[in-house]
């Protein structure tokens, strides 16, 4: 790899470390091409990405960036999962690692916080951005729905009473 290519890789990785909500580092030794392609597909579907990079270049790119302490995980055959959504890469990688023991989670970073394996698993257990938005929308819509049913309830009760009285008079 030429010097210009290495500088471009370092710049790209630096951008990833700066812009990502979370970064997860894993060992991937023994994964087949098909398994790696499956991981990439799952990550893409979740709005996340996977990148294999030389550890030395990744360590250079981490200097002065948020989560600089994550460089301790960059040994051996590592793959980096990242996304703007802090939960997405952790969720997909955790689920993939449960099915495939060749992918080993080492740790990661979320902003300035360096996460160990348990931290990544805790992050994976959190609801995703979309799940949070849908629950917030449901919470915002619930009072309006309750108000509409409370306003309609007395009219419904009166109609029921009138119907009962009408039935009694007819009998």
Explain this structure to me?
Helix 1 (3-19) crosses helix 3 (55-62) and helix 4 (88-99) crosses helix 5. This protein is elongated. The protein has a 5-stranded antiparallel sheet, sandwiched between helices. The protein contains 6 helices and 5 strands, in the order H-E-H-E-H-E-H-E-E-H-H. With 171 residues, the protein is of the alpha+beta class. The longest helix has 42 residues, at 129-170. Helices cover 59% and strands 15% of the residues. It has 2 domains: 3-126, Ribosomal protein L10, N-terminal RNA-binding domain (Alpha-Beta Plaits), CATH 3.30.70.1730; 127-171. It has helices at 3-19, 33-45, 55-62, 88-99, 117-125, 129-170; strands at residues 22-27, 49-52, 78-83, 104-110, 113-115. Strand 4 (104-110) and strand 5 form a beta hairpin.
Strand order in the largest sheet: 2-3-1-4-5
Distance between the termini: 96 Å
Number of domains: 2
Binned, the helix content reads 55-70%
What's the story with the biggest beta sheet? 5 strands, antiparallel
- The geometry reads as elongated
Average pLDDT across residues?
A: 85
Q: What structural category arises from helix and sheet content? A: alpha+beta
Number of helices: 6
Q: Which consecutive residue ranges, at least 5 long each, have pLDDT under 50?
A: none
| Gyration radius over CA | 26 Å
Architecture of the largest domain, CATH level 2?
2-Layer Sandwich
